[in-house]
## 1
Amino acid sequence: MSSQRTIYTNEGKPWIAIAGEVHNSNSSNVAYMEEVWNQAELLGMNTLLLPVSWELVEPQEGHFEFQLVDALVEQARAKGMKIIFLWFGTWKNAQCSYAPEWVKKDLVRFPRAQVEKGKNKITLKNFYGMSYTTLSYLGEETKKADAKAFTELMKHIKSLDEKEHTVIGVQVENETGLQGAAREHSDLADTAFADQVPQALVDFIKANTSTMEPLMKNAALAGAAGGTWTEVFGAVAEEAFSAYYIASYVEQVAAAGKAVYELPMTVNCWLDKGEEAGKYPSGGPVAKVMEIWKFAAPSIDAFAPDIYVQNFHEICEQYQKLDNPLVIPETAVHSYVAPRMVYCIGHYHSACFAPFGFEDMGQPFNAMQAGLFGVDVSDPLLQKPQSPMEYGWCSRTLHCMMDLLASKYGTSDLQAVISEKMDMSPLDMSKGMAGMMAGNPENDTMMFGTFGFKAVMNAPMIQRKDGVCLIVKESEDTYYILINGSLLAMFSVDPEKPNYDIIALEEGAFEDGAWKAGRRLNGDEAASLIFDDYTLLKLKVFTYA
Ligand code: DGJ
């Protein structure tokens, strides 16, 4: 079901964005960014996700300013890094705070969304009493103006960067959707809502029910094969309507930009946590309406979840349906972030992994931010800060292995396991090897044909609980193993050759794409493969009768 591929490239080769997203305001100032680039470098990142906003790009209508874009690209080149720009246009967290003054002030030409008929344009008030307001997704003039600004941006990036290719992708808008109601309620919206659903959309929906989330699936199966939004989509009609119009809007913006410069384009998503639509931004690309987005926004290369919830892996699974490459543009910087990065690359073969606000990595847990990000704080491990040094080691290691890893994307030669998906109740060592081998093979064992590895993370001698293990099979008898917080066991299930011997086991690192051996591990070190620190190994084995 997973598409397991990267959408990014560098010099014609696949690029895995081992990335970070900066805090919202940092890329608005080049001098401020100097230190942020340094931090990213220490954290081993190869790509930064940087906001570029409509208000700064087009401060007056038709007058474009790209000095900031130029300077950010220069800074990236000086560090040998890549950029994915985030277009903060009509939507930023379902609001219009990044629209230019001339858009914000003209409420007639650029109408705001009405969450209640004829009422004020305020969708909600936040915790601090600040008004939330958003532009209407039915605003034709707004859509044209946004598409024009975005096109100018893409034209500029092309003229600046087509050869060097420092900018490898663009996110179109940021967390689209409508807060406060499942759909807009202007007269225009009411008329459109009472209208017929485009038949091509109905046909697409009917043909794609197998991948759908239960709510949408039930509605799609029970709904009419043509008719109004309510007739076709029943209980989810209002959200489906919003999704269709927002996706179509984003498509127009993205397609206009792609027509001048074809870079991979993504949209990110404020997830729904089971609330009713409008509590989370209705019509944004949540898994429930992904089929509608897929239909209405073909220029989008990946629907990308912003994951701050504890059921991280469930979300990753959801976002691989419909052949969607896994791009994680935002996730929390807490203690699981390094193992999650390793796992996302090793297991989901993700195109991008980026902790949000990585500038804070290593800082003590901040409950205010946890609230802001919607982090569920009931797991104490989530509150432990991530060591920046360890994160940097993981990023650099994965970056140096990129060619090998990318060549194995989409195949079973690249696998990973993580403590979060394992039974971590303390292992009873008195049962010896048999006890150690018990468990849940789906989550703790990596099989490469008839040869397998099990990463035991709940053994008493393993101190840490944030274990992860990624294994890539390079050739028939040779494996690279990135491991931490695990006891590594290996075995053969080949009935003809049930025994194995280690031929060579080395610690080491990749330099310029080539293996550079460190210690040769043998004797005591090879007899008990216990790793309580991040380590990269090269293993050569053989099996025999
Ligand atoms: C999700 C948004 O996409 C980010 O820009 C940022 O606002 C974070 N939430 C948390 O603050």
Note: Residues 178 and 311 are 24 Å apart (CA to CA).
## 2
Amino acid sequence: MALLRIHRFPDGILAKEAEKVKEIDGKTAALLNNMADTMYSANGIGLAANQVGVLERVIVVDVGRENDRGKELFKIINPEIIEAEGSQITEEGCLSVVDYTAEVTRASRVLVKGWTLDHKEIEIEAENLAAVCLQHEIDHLDGTLFIDHLSRLKREMYRKRLKKLGDIPDPDPSKSNVPNI
Ligand code: NI
């Protein structure tokens, strides 16, 4: 088990677009396994490679609660939204955006295509929180954070608060019921 350092806003790597994985190999597997360990350790429900400083299009997602953690872990390579419909508003948090949560409007159902570590093409249909999580992670791969969906004013307010805080505190997941995505 290896834990990776989670990069935090305003780290520039979070604003960069990740590149498609051309060959799924042992390195991809190691990265995804370490990302899953890091996600669980930080009490997150999703993590994208940008967040651990790697510009490759891979994500891990597990929206299972408490005792179900680990049972529905998805490691997805080159994920892509091929269908989206409806809309939902969810309070979101992010392991890279500490000490802040906000309501974000996203599609309520998505169909995501991608690849597994054993080179299988998969399609995942998701609703509710799972759909939010997939959209949030795929956003990360495009260099977009959930705060980029907010008004400029709100984003600036967060930026100012971060400055005031100086040393960014470690997030305390037990403090909030808002999912860290
Ligand atoms: Ni995030």
Note: The chain has a mean pLDDT of 93.
## 3
Amino acid sequence: MKTTESTTEQTQSTTTQESSTGAKKSTWKLQDFEIGNYLGKGKFGQVYLAREKRTKYIVALKVLDKEQLKREGVEHQIRREIEIQSHLRHKNILRLYGYFYDRQKVYLILEYAAGGELYKQLQECKRFSEPEAARYITGLAKALKYCHDRNVIHRDIKPENLLMDSNHDVKIADFGWSVHAPTTRRTTLCGTLDYLPPEMVEGREHDSTVDLWCLGVLCYEFLVGEPPFMAPTQEETFKKIKDVDLRFPPFVSIDAQDLISRLLVKDTLQRMSLTELFEHPWIVNNCPAQ
Ligand code: ATP
Ligand code: MG
């Protein structure tokens, strides 16, 4: 007899995963996994290390509480996150292998990022060296090129959304604010204040160039240890962003200053493109093997 929602924990999963044997599996359930260490707590749930029993494949299982998603009105956002992230395949983008749910929880099967959060790494060492920062920025720029070529805008690039694998390769995680462009919701105010581009602060329409602005803010934070428009109040941060009030400490190299200043440009048409970024001397000289 076929099981129904009331008789089984596993109700539905739609994404397929190719196992090491090449076989495709279209439905997952909690019983397919051995749950290991707790990896961390997110806004809407917990993340655990897990191993798929049959293939012994290691993943991260993100467990989201359905009630909480409903209460906070983010079901739509989570659906979009799953829809977008599950279709992206890039070395610098965290894979979302699939998902399933039962009556209370939604489970996301994610690539395990053994290196943890880039944010923690940055906090520990305060600043990255220029070659280190250039390596991360190059990886991220490649991932963004891949996204933009598929009309996906991330819109929330910041250290908290970046994870690292065991090779210290950076992975974009968290596609909660990403959208397929063009969209009718272009003026949504999203993202962390420090990383918001002027067009979003001013409530104007935005496009994929928002991610270039964020890359500039990120590059600055990597090299300086704090974002460029940090201020005691939200109003002051907004003013600094609108005025592009950008100042560099003297230890930032001229080439790095040049790259950041070309990304943090108010006029989106004049903002540096990803193609130009790959050819910039700071990238070329610090990251020759890109
Ligand atoms: P949200 O994504 O809801 O905004 P968040 O980013 O704070 O919240 P999650 O993405 O849910 O949190 O993850 C919580 C923590 O679990 C992260 O900070 C990270 O340390 C860890 N983590 C999440 N995903 C992975 C993963 N794929 N591999 C390794 N650790 C992970
Ligand atoms: Mg997250």
Note: The longest helix spans residues 130-149.
